[in-house]
Amino acid sequence: MGEFVKYSIAFVMIAIFSIALITFAINFGLDNDASINIGSDEGFNEANTNLKGNLTEFYTGTGTASESYQKSTIGSQTESTEGGTQFKVTPATSLSMAVATITTSWNRIFGKDSAFAFILTSLIAVLTFILIMYGYKAWAGRSP
Q1: Please, which residues have CB within 8 angstroms of residue 124's CB and are 6 or more apart in sequence?
Q2: With contact defined as beta carbons under 8 Å apart, do 71 and 137 qualify?
């Protein structure tokens, strides 16, 4: 994987881990009736909310990038084919099948109202991002 993909995914994983730690700490305090709980700290709640919002924005951004990638073409001055359909159809189809399977499994195991639904959203966004980057690399013959 290129450096761009590695760093992007690393930052998403850091955000997911941070949300999991904050949520665990808050729920631990609630479950044990702790007299001091970080759930009452505005800074942690704000950080948690901001991280979840950023992950949702990442998910939306990868959806937009995927749509743009599906509609894009490369000029005829390059060595790659115009349109690149042979590199676009398979990733999009395989991703939609994987997303459908993962979503159904997630909803059956954890339910639709799970407090950790952001993990599924982030996972789908990361998979979409990786497929876009690799599809572009195969189509254009260079790293994005």
Answers
A1: 59, 99, 102, 103
A2: no
Domain boundaries, the chain: 3-140
Q: How many residues does the chain have?
A: 144
**Measured between alpha carbons, how far is 121 from 23 in angstroms, rounded to an integer?**
17
Residue labelled with tokens 């991280």: 51
Cβ contacts of 94 within 8 Å, gap of 6 or more:
131
Q: How many CB atoms lie within 10 A of CB 121?
A: 18
pLDDT digits 0-9 by tens, 48-66: 888 888 888 888 888 888 8
CB 23, CB 48: distance < 8 Å: yes
- In the prediction, which pLDDT does 45 show? 81
Residue labelled with tokens 């991002």: 129
For the entire predicted model, the pTM comes to: 0.61
pLDDT reading at 91 higher than 70: no
Helices (H), the chain: 3-31, 42-71, 85-110, 117-140
